[in-house]
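G., the chain you wanted modeled:
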Amino acid sequence: MPQPFRIGLIQMSCPDPKDNLAKTVEKVREAAARGAQIVLLQELFRCQYFCREEVHLSNFDLAETIPGPTTDTMGKLAKELGVVIVASLFERRAPGLFHNTAVVLNPDGVIAGIYRKMHIPEDPSYYEKYYFAPGDLGFGSIETPFARLGVLVCWDQWYPEAARITAMSGADILIYPTAIGWVPEDKADGAWQIEAWQTMQRSHAIANGIYVAGINRIGRESLTRTIDFWGSSFVSDPSGRLVARASVDQEEILVVECDPAQTEMARRNWPFFRDRRIDAYGPILQRWNAK
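Predicted structure as tokens:
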């Protein structure tokens, strides 16, 4: 049986691209000091959430290569602390080609793998299709010394297909770096949105018998102005029970131990993988199947 592993979720505000990296480094150190072996950062932690509008060509200057300055810094930090770091970045893959990419850095400082966000939203205040090409690496998991990580990003969290395929690749945990919040007209009656967001991800935990971690930012940023990020970062166990949950508006670090024995037990009790009818799922590959 694989050994338990400890994850650290860093929930913070991201007010200034010039300071966010140094701030994150200090919080990674704190998480490691508290026993985290795998440190999880929120979506696009280096910068403010710039996708609120699609008129600023200068926003593309925020992108960087992988490997690049941030992965160099985080790689050195991972090696110094002996931890794994999952960092979400605005990737400049080639001139005019950009992705929303999560990088997994091993304790030796080397990149263990990357995941490019597959589902790209296009909603008021979330104009991501303007900035990001859809990922082309598919769904899978990345081996680290402590656990096999199934990394997805934000909008991916609403899709059970993504969770299922990632779990089927042998992941020990599904990890969702996130940037999600309320627009003004929703905030007054917005508790249900958090519940829907969290319930969807907890359902992935239940359906796949797997740990799930969602890491979100907090606060209102000068670029976004009309989005209040709702934090509420959390960890669910393989039965869908909340193990830890952060507040909606405070910077916090959650350190949680995940025990693969719970995955084994959940899948024995609810043998969904055994009972899947893989011979009957062909229509899922169609856009719509109404006769």
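The longest helix spans residues 191-208.

Shout if anything looks off.
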